Amino acid sequence: MDARLILKAIGFLTLDAIGIPGNMIILASFIHLRIGNGKLMPIDVILCKLSFVNLVVVVVRGIPQSLNTLGIRKLFDQDGCNFIILAYRVSRAMSICLTSLLSCYQWIILAPTSGFWPTIRSTFIRRLLPIMASVWCLNIVIYVYTMYSYSWGLYRNSTVHVLNLDFCLVLFPSFSAFLVTGTVYLVRDFISIALMVLSSLCIVVVLYRHSQQVKSIRSPHQKIKNSAESRAAKSVLMLVSTYVFFFGLDNGIWFYTICVDASANAVLSDARVFFGSCYSALSPLVVIATNTKIQLKLRFPFSRKPLESPETTVSHVST
Q: For 270-283, how does the pLDDT look when each residue is reduced to its tens digit (9 = 90+)?
């Protein structure tokens, strides 16, 4: 095994070792909160769903990639490949959509209490689950349709473009189909990125105004409230920054291989796959490091009495 394959195997095994337990810890913590408290805050629901799809991404992409790099071939038959690729693409799409939804939610929570914002806030919270269900259905329909349309197109066109995932092959009727499909997915991702960036900028503005207000506040309770809101918002900003960073690396390499060097070497291809999986594997570290509820559950997993923190009581309350 050459040095490139050794580094590739170490990289993906590291992502698996971090991403799988990390996402499972977040899921277990929120399930425990749900059982103990009877309900979850809307932002907790989003984080729970985000951890689930990130876990699926790491499992269906990271584990097969690691096994293939270690020399274990022919992991799946055609049906298995279809399932794995569909699960990966839908989960990856949901990861970016939920991260975008999370940033938009935090912006709405921090928005002013005057004007039309209270109506938007209450409507958004009330319809959060239908919104997430609609996004799930939309992504599933998109990827199921493209998967079966390309499968049929394979038999009608002798010109086939192959995307090699190492453990499976994705067949396109032509390079044009491959390019159009990739562009459509990229546009979808950039729309989500634009929403992330816009909402994040608004959050930064609100946090700056809050910091100016805190300087003149004498009430300790109000200072704690603003501090908890700031922690929740900064946690979202860190998640968005992490996603944008790895998204930029992933798609920067993809853009280079498509528009500059279509015969890019295997090192660039491996780098793109690795960076494309980093967010799902590393984002749990950001969530665990910034979420007080999860930290309390990790410190006191067997405590019968629910433990409260400032974040638990005020960080997600409309202000």
A: 788 888 889 999 99
